[in-house]
Amino acid sequence: KHALHGFFHSLRSEMAHLGVHVMMLCPGFTATNLQSRALDGSGKLNKGDRSTVGKEATPESVADEVYRGVLKRKRELVLTPVGKFMHHFVLRFMPAWYERQMTKKMKPEFDRNENV
Q: What domain range is 82 assigned to?
């Protein structure tokens, strides 16, 4: 994710003289059927539930927010309250704590993929 942020910052700078607007979108978890087709490490369908943080957004609500973000020419759009808190506070001031918490939260998913 960090690499994507860097890429979008560079792309924004490189495209500005052409009048191209570049917006980085951080939508959080979105309720789609994408997970039903996800593959595990062996290439088989992943039968486990995915871990989520917070409530899943609908694709329609994400699309509405993106549309408004484009109209306002936002540089970055973070859609979830958890994401905004993480982005603006936790990652800046408590990165090690964040890594430990996410590792704990995602452990069942990591373990499931390790056994493949």
A: 2-114
